[in-house]
Amino acid sequence: MNLNNYVAVITGGASGIGEATVRLFIERGAKVVIVDLNEERGSALEAELGERAWFYKADVSDSAQVQAMFQAIEEKYGVVDVLYNNAAYSLSKTLWDTTEEDWDRVMRVNLKGYFLCAKYALPLMKKSSHGSIICTGSELGVVGCVESLAYNTSKGGIIQFAKSLALELAPFGIRVNVVCPSGTETPAFIKDMSRTGNYEAEVARLISSYPLKRLGQPIDMAYAVAFFASEESSFITGTHLMVDGGYTAQ
């Protein structure tokens, strides 16, 4: 999966799945814009990875910041070949514990952020001969789960967002697909699974539900993203790929 000289924008790129994808894309020859709010981590990653990595601090749910970001990218690179919508806000709460502010924040980051990035990336992606938008969904966008109402709803919305957007952008040769991870061992996952104070027991319970009997790793998801970014998936659009250890096959 050669990504040589592709210009890729990866949101939520400073840690977890985003970071693994940044590293893989750099390894495969891409120029990567690392978008994140964590300036310390993003800047360190830029310094470590060298001239083909560029950190840009932005809140993807803020229209003015997203517009300014793509203007800066246009000035620097002139084109965007790949947009990986990965930034997300996770929330583990029941209906009765979820406030309106909680709900709005999840939807603002997980749906509005993806919309804004796609909208303002489009003029630059039209210049590419191999445009691809990839979104991070979740197994929880396909199956139900308690204590995660807002998050699950947003992830289900991402799948429909991608299907509809794929049809709109097909005339421009731009493909849109979703990677749906299962529980993946990222800093955010570890923090969430540690809420009960018994991380090992929570992880063991989760692993027991996966046919492949292990957690996902960030690189597992990065490989799937790289596939959708490459020409090897040039006839695939409007789909979602379950990278979930077989969980939704049961």
From TrEMBL:
E.C. code: 1.-.-.-
A Pfam family assignment: adh_short_C2
Keyword field: Oxidoreductase
Q: Is Oxidoreductase tagged as a keyword? A: yes
Per the UniProt record, the source organism is Faecalibacterium longum
Give the similarity note: Belongs to the short-chain dehydrogenases/reductases (SDR) family.
Alphabetized PROSITE patterns for the sequence? ADH_SHORT (PS00061)
Q: Which GO terms describe its molecular function?
A: oxidoreductase activity
The name on file for this protein is SDR family oxidoreductase
